[in-house]
Amino acid sequence: MNRVQVRIAAAGAVVLSLAALAVGCGGGSTADAESQGKIDLVAYSTPETSYAKLIPAFNQTSAGKGVTFTQSYGASGDQSRAVAAGQAADVVHFALEPDIARLVDAKLVSPNWDQNQYNGIVANTEVVFVVRKGNPKHITSWDDLVKPGVEVITPNPFTSGGARWNIMAAYGAELKEGKTPAQAQRYLSDLFHNVPVQDDKASAALQTFTGGKGDVLLAYEQDALLAQESGADIQLVYPPQTIEIQTPIATTTKASSSAKAFVKWLYTDQAQTILAETGYRPVVSSDESAFARAFPDAGNPTLFTIDDVDPGGWDDVMTTFFDPENSIMQKIEGSIGVSTSS
Amino acid sequence: MTTVALPRRRASGAALPSAAPGVAITYLSVIVLLPLAALLWQSQKGGADAFWQAVSSPDAAAALELTLGAALLVALNNAVFGTLIAWMIVRDSFPGKGIVNSLIDLPFALPTVVAGLTLLTLYGPYSPIGLNITYTRTAVVLALLFETLPFVIRSVQPVLLELDREMEEAAASLGARGHVVFRRIVLPNLLPAILSGMALAFARAVGEYGSVVMLSGNVPFSTEVASVHIYSQIQSDYVTGATAMSIVLLAISLAVLLSISALHRRSSKHVH
């Protein structure tokens, strides 16, 4: 190559790589123009096993014939942020309501998303205790978790949506037992002094526990049941009182008609039965028996919801408990360092 | 790997095509400068007060302290053992030397979460060798040692290869003992490479997330490192805090890289 050729080649390379970058960035927006019959599903990680069965079943129905899916699973907060930042999505299914609220703020989901018979909740689960087989530390109640020498594994509430459910379960259970809010906060502080590892997400916490660390893991019932089925040496303990975890689903403002049909179908008995078979508690009341059939040993603790704990719901709770600068959990995390900093 | 060691003058000889500077600058802008500028712009959105508050809060300060301390420890450790390993590979001959030489870069190829998982299995509660040190500060250092292994070795190795053995032989023939030859002849020649390897290891350690998040336990004030702290701020939609903290990490790494580079310039002036 002579010098002129080299120069042209170099300039060409720059143009090509810039063009490649531009195409890479714009890829998301070209996809939704022809999204009739194609659904981009963005969800948190644990329903993946459910959707693996739900999607083929939907394709068997008349509404779902020929509909194709792209599926994306990950930590709830990460997924929500990705959609807010532009990831293509027709259907979003998250672990907690604030992750949908973020998309409402971004004008990607209608503010009326929860105006249906089920308040936008597609499946329930609950916070349970996971212990080692045989329950060697005899863990049966929330009080057992704050005893000296008991190691509790729960993810970090500032990185994990699952951890926030765990904390509201513990706090709410104390209130239900007649404690004052101040006493319940004191309980949370005691609890976190027994937490030696705070993983970044619920799945990592489960891994830490099955890896041998800790006496009790606070987990979603659905996650724990699946882990047990896949052979982990663990046992579920149902506390006397616990929170009902409500997982919200919504279609985005640019969702195709098939996406709306899919979400509608998820509330049918057929779909709710599949959800029950994969460890979720159905929201359609006619199908509660499906869960009982699938998990005959599952306990039935007294359930409360996030609105029972705080009438302001997640909006309030996120500020009072989980604000990173000034909140109940931020103070508790700060107090841990004072006594155990090594 | 010796990115820090810049030659003083443009080498004479083959000339680059005249489009090259334009290409290089465009490329650097798109890949590095633009994202860094965006980060800087994002971090000052909350104002100076918010910035300061984000990086000086007790938990942020504790995370920074742990991260910088561990990174420094790891860099120093690498200086000693990295040089030793480089020496072994260049100067000694032993069976399987080629394999050892190729093994060194593997930590770069291994996804950091896999590294974390592997170390967790090896040094966790069910450790097959009976050593449980996970979820402690020691585990943080261990993960960082694994991730930063190649830097010093790979920056020292080429210098050692080119080092004129006659200098050492001359010193020895004049009666200098082995350790004196090493201290007076070899070490001064290797020092710039060791320092730049250390600086890279330090910078890499400061930003490490994947392996540390699995091994450390992430308990604030105890085992939470800066990158995990930043992640928790992002998860709490506290972007100002996350970017402010990142800027501090970048500034410290930049200062380290620049001062190593300055040191190197001074020492190369000294030699010539």
CATH topology of chain B: MetI-like fold
Count of the domains of chain A = 2
Question: What's the count of strands of chain B?
Answer: 0
Distance between the termini of chain A: 64 Å
Subunit organisation of the chains: heterodimer
* Low-pLDDT stretches of chain B: none
Number of helices of chain B: 13
Largest sheet of chain A: 10 strands, mixed
The CATH level-2 architecture of the largest domain in chain A is identified as 3-Layer(aba) Sandwich
Number of strands of chain A: 10
Shape of chain B: globular
Biggest sheet character of chain B = none
Percent in strands of chain A: 15-25%
Cα end-to-end separation of chain B: 23 Å
Summary of the model, kept short:
The complex is a heterodimer of chains A (342) and B (272). In chain A, 46% of the residues lie in helices and 16% in strands.
Can you walk me through this structure?
The complex is a heterodimer of chains A (342) and B (272). With 342 residues, chain A is an alpha/beta fold. Chain A folds into two domains: 138 residues, Periplasmic binding protein-like II (D-Maltodextrin-Binding Protein, domain 2, 3-Layer(aba) Sandwich), CATH 3.40.190.10; 162 residues, D-Maltodextrin-Binding Protein, domain 2, CATH 3.40.190. Helices cover 46% and strands 16% of the residues of chain A. Chain A has 14 helices and ten strands. In chain A, α3 packs parallel to α4, α5 packs across α6 and α10 packs parallel to α11. The longest helix of chain A has 29 residues. Chain A starts with a helix and ends with a helix. The relative contact order of chain A is 0.15. About 4% of the residues of chain A have low confidence. With 272 residues, chain B is an all-alpha fold. Chain B has one domain: MetI-like (MetI-like fold, Orthogonal Bundle), CATH 1.10.3720. Chain B has 13 helices and no strands. In chain B, α1 crosses α13, α7 crosses α10 and α9 packs antiparallel against α10. The longest helix of chain B has 34 residues. Chain B is globular. The model of chain B has no long low-confidence stretch (mean pLDDT 88).
